[in-house]
Amino acid sequence: MAEIVDSIEKYGLSKKAKPNVLFSKVGIVGCGSVGQNIARMIASKGIEIVFIEINEQNIENAYIGIERELNAQIDHWGMTQNEKKIIMSRINGYTNYECLKGCDLVIEAILSKDRELSVDIRKGVFKNIEKHVSPNAIIATNSTTLVITELSSELNHKDRCASLNFLTNAPESRIVEVVRGLYTTDEAYENVRKFISLIGKKMVPVQESPGLLSVRMFVSIINEACEILMEGVGSKEDIDLTMKNGLGLALGPFEFSDKVGLDKVMRWMDNLYHEFGDIKYKSSPLIKKLVRANQLGRKTRKGFYDYDENGKKIID
After folding, report:
1. Is the pLDDT of residue 6 over 70?
2. For the sheet containing 91-94, what is the strand order?
């Protein structure tokens, strides 16, 4: 009797039969300080990250920045060297948009100082992303003062776009502000919700409006703090102390502005003032004065306060 031989291969999963895991790969376009924080945070949840930068030097700078933040966590007993190596192995930078192929979500996180130029640049980024991802892949922006409907208006599949604002200046924050645009489908919106849950964050739904919740509130607070300071009602130290010890904020408005970067704060203000025309969003003369002097906060070691090379506030 002839021996019956049955191939074991047919009982295994072929490459075609392997299930696709949603959000196994996420792309980021623009890996400055904001993009680095997003990449580090998502990669720490076991997700592969592909980021795009304009040249090799920027890619190297991104790696250095991400590693610096991970080292800081190690110094504070927040992770081990082995965990750091695993996270870094999941993050890969390129200069070619083709490397975004296979991403389930791509987040635009570029930096542009001029509002009108910023809109045009981001629209171009969105078009380049769309060329290399599937029609079902979600394309998102991390911009807070530009609306997703405008940025996605020239895409072929604008229905899969949304705005995701990661509060990267407050790493302990557990929320992500999410805006669905005029064309965003229920399916895309639900997939965004699943992604945010997957990375251990809570989604805060926001109606489409420049500044969302966080930036509109913060800009109003810092402008009022500057007004109080200029009137001589209190010192910047006492204003910050009151907001921290009196109202429970982790940082006072001047400390937080220095952390965010005063150039970024002024850009937020200018965009909101341009959009709403309300004087409460107009940049304070104090902010403008410091930005013109290139005293931008921690990153230049001088802003409302002075800082050492490690970004720690110098106490007189």
Report:
1. no
2. 91-94, 48-52, 25-29, 105-108, 138-141, 161-166, 175-180, 202-205
Query: At 25, phi and psi to the nearest 5?
Result: -145, 125
CB of 255 closer than 8 Å to CB of 305: yes
Question: What average pLDDT score do residues 221-231 get?
Answer: 96
Tokens of 115: 């509002």
Alpha helices, DSSP H, located in the chain: 33-43, 56-75, 81-89, 115-132, 148-151, 186-198, 214-231, 236-241, 253-260, 262-276, 285-292
For the chain, list the domains and their CATH numbers: 25-205 (3.40.50.720), 214-300 (1.10.1040.10)
What confidence score (pLDDT) does residue 76 get?
81
Among all chains, which residue has been given the structure tokens 């930068």? Answer: 53
CB neighbour list of residue 54: distance below 8 Å, 6 or more residues apart: 95
Q: Assign 205 to helix, strand or coil.
A: strand
Strand runs (DSSP E) across 194-291, as ranges? 202-205
How big is the CA angle at 193 (ends 22 and 92), to the nearest 5 degrees? 50
Instruction: Check whether 35 has a pLDDT greater than 80.
Output: yes
| pTM recorded for the entire structure | 0.85
Strand partners for 118: none
